[in-house]
């Protein structure tokens, strides 16, 4: 445990943010250029050499790791800011940096944190160090708790709100789980999400709910992307800042593409597609008609889905915000122009406000019906925002981690720890999403040591109904049925004549078995294995597990 237990002191003299340009030094190290330092460099090496170094910066893209003295001041000997002998820590060795910060006074921690935050051009190591520091400061925070349901979860556990429950590995430490994205795909993720929760979710109130404006929505997006990096798709091993760019196309070109479901070759639920199409959110791209012609005589899940989707799209008169290409099973692409983004966003937010108001003012509804309809409205607006994909990146962070919990709190519900937030991508119906919201509330109550409040004993996944005998069996079953085709039907022989497409189900189950085993599940003796086999038995496909071993 850290020797200091006081809350870090908020500094009134935060470092002035600087726009740093990177230049290599004669010693092979790298440094940053600011306006004052350019003048200093000109005095030392002359104008011509200065310009050569600045041009070299643009070409070489060398990244500096920040260095600090014992008082938390940034050290850069090249610019006369201290000497090499003053350096006691730098971010190039993250393990050593973490050991160092754990020994520092709160005011030193605050100074180092503000310096890392103020940099406009950070390395991967800087961004991770910032999240490490934020985590330490959170553990020392003795400030006031939020006056809403978020207060039931200790602040050091808030990471569970923005790391999907399916990724929580019980064999790993909380630190490893919380920094999972930081260490892999998005350095700075933890810090940005904690700031987002502090600024936009913790103040939420069910007593005084506020209408969200398009400006605040965009401010929330900026909060979850600022100072955060992502892996470059163009250059392996390189990290780049997450863009804070609006989605949509320019002059009909350059829209953003994304998947409706997490598994690339799974099909969206046809009911979900229908409701989104009727609202003008999605449509089928009419130019990709070759698969539709081939679908006329075909009978695979994909071709049947295309026939249904084509009929639905032909019956809608509005131009959809996004289109599903027939060549791909679940990829959507935005079709609106960038200039339309704010107007479409405002319409979505206003429609949600009106729907919530109408539910509350309907005196014919029982209390239970009011609560259920509010959950449907919340699930609907989050799905619409996510499918509209108003930004080129970080839509999930904004919609499913921050805004979803804010709306739930404002309407009197607890926050949620979702199993997998990717299901808001448009592949699932509102009913299915509401079922997952209730599961998420129970997950939150489990994590905060409170009694479960939601009855989720009966759930519907892609038209497949199953009544659970035990909660633990259902926990396994929801994963088995999480990504199946929209053509899954009731498989209870006495209830429905239509039969499930057996090979598709088996293929999905095999994927789930592989996924479980990657997380150390389903080995002989594991209690999950027993529950899993019980669920497979209910689906009449219990032999699938035997394909992988001979128990």
TrEMBL record:
Residues 18-33 have a biased composition (Polar residues). This is Fido domain-containing protein. It comes from the Bacteria. Gene3D superfamilies: Fido-like domain. Residues 1-33 are annotated as: Disordered. Residues 1-10 have a biased composition (Basic and acidic residues). It comes from Cohnella zeiphila. The lineage of its organism: Bacteria, Bacillati, Bacillota, Bacilli, Bacillales.
């Amino acid at each position: 445990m850290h020797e200091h237990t006081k809350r870090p002191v908020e500094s009134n003299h935060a470092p002035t943010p600087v726009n740093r340009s990177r230049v290599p030094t004669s010693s092979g190290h790298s440094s940053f250029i600011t306006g004052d330092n350019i003048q200093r460099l000109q005095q030392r090496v002359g104008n011509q050499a200065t310009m050569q170094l600045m041009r070299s910066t643009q070409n070489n893209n060398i990244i500096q790791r920040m260095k600090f003295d014992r008082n938390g001041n940034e050290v850069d000997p090249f610019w006369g800011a201290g000497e090499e002998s003053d350096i006691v820590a730098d971010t190039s060795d993250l393990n050593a940096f973490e050991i160092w910060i754990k020994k520092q006074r709160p005011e030193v921690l605050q100074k180092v944190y503000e310096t890392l935050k103020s940099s406009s051009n950070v390395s991967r190591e800087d961004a991770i160090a910032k999240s490490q520091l934020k985590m330490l400061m959170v553990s020392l925070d003795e400030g006031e708790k939020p006056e809403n349901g978020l207060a039931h979860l200790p602040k050091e556990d808030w990471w569970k709100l923005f790391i999907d429950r399916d990724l929580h590995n019980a064999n790993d430490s909380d630190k490893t789980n919380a920094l999972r994205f930081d260490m892999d795909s998005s350095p700075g993720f933890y810090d940005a999400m904690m700031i987002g929760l502090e600024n936009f979710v913790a103040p939420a109130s069910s007593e005084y709910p506020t209408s969200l404006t398009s400006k605040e929505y965009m401010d929330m997006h900026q909060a979850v992307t600022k100072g955060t990096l992502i892996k470059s798709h163009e250059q392996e091993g390189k990290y780049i800042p997450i863009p804070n760019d609006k989605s949509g196309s320019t002059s009909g070109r350059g829209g953003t593409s994304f998947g409706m479901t997490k598994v690339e070759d799974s099909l969206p639920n046809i009911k979900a597609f229908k409701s989104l199409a009727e609202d003008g959110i999605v449509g089928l791209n009419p130019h990709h008609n070759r698969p539709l012609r081939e679908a006329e005589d075909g009978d695979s899940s994909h071709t049947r889905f295309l026939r249904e989707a084509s009929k639905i799209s032909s019956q809608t008169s509005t131009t959809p915000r996004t289109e599903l290409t027939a060549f791909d099973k679940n990829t959507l692409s935005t079709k609106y122009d960038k200039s339309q983004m704010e107007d479409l966003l405002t319409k979505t937010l206003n429609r949600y406000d009106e729907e919530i108001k109408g539910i509350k003012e309907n005196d014919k509804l029982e209390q239970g019906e009011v609560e259920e309809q509010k959950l449907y409205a919340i699930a609907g607006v989050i799905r619409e925002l996510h499918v509209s994909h108003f930004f080129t990146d970080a839509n999930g962070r904004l919609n499913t981690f921050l805004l979803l919990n804010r709306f739930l709190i404002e309407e009197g519900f607890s926050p949620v720890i979702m199993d997998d937030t990717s299901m808001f991508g448009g592949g699932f119906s509102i009913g299915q999403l509401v079922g997952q919201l209730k599961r998420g509330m129970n997950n939150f109550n489990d994590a905060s040591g409170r009694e479960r409040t939601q009855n989720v004993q009966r759930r519907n996944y892609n038209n497949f109904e199953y009544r659970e005998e035990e909660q633990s069996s259902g926990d396994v079953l929801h994963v088995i049925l999480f990504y199946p085709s929209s053509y899954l039907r009731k498989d209870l022989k006495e209830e429905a004549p239509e039969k499930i497409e057996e090979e598709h189900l088996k293929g999905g189950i095999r994927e789930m078995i592989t996924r479980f085993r990657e997380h150390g599940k389903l080995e002989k003796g594991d209690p999950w294995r027993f529950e899993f086999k019980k669920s497979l038995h209910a689906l009449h496909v219990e032999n699938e597990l035997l394909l992988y071993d001979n128990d």
